[in-house]
Design brief:
Length: about 220
């Protein structure tokens, strides 16, 4: 049952992607050749479920850390076959092994007709090594005190381990946080309220400013 579910979802996703990328002329030709039956409600639910929590669009191969390295090239070759290119900082080093294993199991269960290439054990080791080395730098056990700390812990842990609040400057946090809000929207994750966003960004910037003052 699990195999049939995975195969159905994968087929729907690939068909949807192919349809989106098809040129208008090709679409018209194929439409004239055959009439495609509309998706059933069950098919639509499967397709919607498959689109949730996927890596957001916008990451290009050149955006990856050390883009010419073997690890980066393997990530591009294998991970971008089914969805947008993931960034290593999407997960912490402790989370990446579980995420990667889940992806590899799904790839192994896809129908051969989809022609998705599965990495060898040696390639999996190189991919995982690259992802963990360049993974999200997480915070310590105790977050620095300040207004917005609880909101930061609540909202930012929805998608990944809490990042180290001292890894960015006060100015950079504004850019990083705006990008995270866009990612949450694309991944269909419940966004923070306006007050939460204000408190979180204020907290991150104040911690970063405090670190710089200490130095």
């Amino acid at each position: 049952m699990a195999y049939r579910y995975a195969a159905t979802v994968a087929t729907l996703v690939m068909v949807g992607v192919a349809a989106c990328r098809e040129s208008p002329r090709a679409a018209a030709t194929s439409g004239a050749a055959a009439t495609v039956a509309p998706l059933t409600r069950s098919d639509q639910l499967l397709l919607a479920a498959a689109s949730i929590a996927l890596p957001p669009e916008g990451i290009e191969p050149g955006d990856l850390p050390e883009p010419r390295s073997r690890g980066a090239q393997l990530v591009v070759a294998f991970c971008a076959q089914c969805h947008a290119l993931p960034t290593p900082v999407a997960h912490s080093a402790t989370d990446w092994p579980g995420v990667a294993r889940r992806m590899w199991l799904r790839m192994e269960r896809l129908p051969d007709s989809l022609k998705v290439q599965v990495p060898t054990n040696a390639e999996r080791y190189e991919i995982l090594q690259y992802l963990t080395v360049n993974a999200l730098k997480v915070s310590g056990a105790v977050l620095p005190p300040g207004k917005g700390r609880d909101e930061f812990a609540l909202v930012c842990s929805r998608c990944h381990a809490l990042p180290d609040v001292r890894v960015h400057s006060s100015v950079d946090w504004g850019v990083v946080y705006a990008r995270m809000e866009r990612n949450m929207e694309r991944m269909k994750v419940a966004p923070p309220t306006g007050q939460q966003s204000e408190d979180i960004l204020s907290y991150l910037q104040s911690v970063a400013a405090g670190k710089r003052a200490t130095k």
